[in-house]
Amino acid sequence: MKTHIIDDVETIESVIKACKVCFVGMSDSEGTPYVLPMNFGYKDGTLYLHSGQEGRSITILDNNPKICITFSTEMKLICQHPDVACSYRLQSCSVICEGKVEFEEDYDKKVEALNIIMAQYVNRKFTYSTPAINNVKVWTMKVDKFSGKEYGVRESGMLTEEL
């Protein structure tokens, strides 16, 4: 089984849209990594996230806005032969996005970002109270770099079992 590079934007975007959670990695001023699972929205090369107004991530990002966001589709355990340990592999796709976070302060743009986030999960419109909009921290990240991989690709004619 092979690992293939995903290099076309359409496939990368389909992997992102298939995910329900992303993992946001950042590094504090001492180089200590910090990774958070977050819900998200994606549209036109920009990722949207939200959080509380304060916390460890906000402190880190105020000093170093560079982040890395990782997505991974649901994993399936497959093998070429059930009695051969080395033939087992997880089959999935992953995407890594790099860029810099900016915090959105404009009220209407925050509403737009929240709608993009909600569209990742449900197909309906929402309204938000003024306190909800004022109290949420909206993160935007224009993706500077995408990379993707597909793991556990079955070769033509290869017999594999899904477990």
3D structure, described in words:
With 163 residues, the protein is of the alpha+beta class. It has a single domain (2-151), classed as Pnp Oxidase, Chain A (Roll), CATH 2.30.110. Helix content is 23%, strand content 45%. The chain has four helices and ten strands, in the order βαββββαβββααββ. The protein has helices spanning 9-18, 56-63, 107-119, 130-135, and strands spanning 2-6, 22-27, 33-38, 41-43, 46-51, 66-72, 76-79, 88-104, 137-153, 161-162. Strands 1, 2, 3, 4, 5, 6, 7, 8, 9 and 10 form a ten-stranded antiparallel sheet that branches. A hairpin with a 2-residue loop joins strand 4 and strand 5. The two termini are 15 Å apart.
From the structure above, extract its key features.
about 160 residues; single chain; 10-stranded antiparallel sheet; 4 helices; globular; Pnp Oxidase, Chain A
Q: Which blocks of ≥5 consecutive residues have pLDDT under 50?
A: none
Q: Number of helix segments?
A: 4
Proportion in β-strands: 35-45%
Q: Give the biggest beta sheet.
A: 10 strands, antiparallel
Number of domains: 1
CATH topology grouping? Pnp Oxidase, Chain A
Helix proportion range: 10-25%
Strand pairing plus helix content: what structural class? alpha+beta
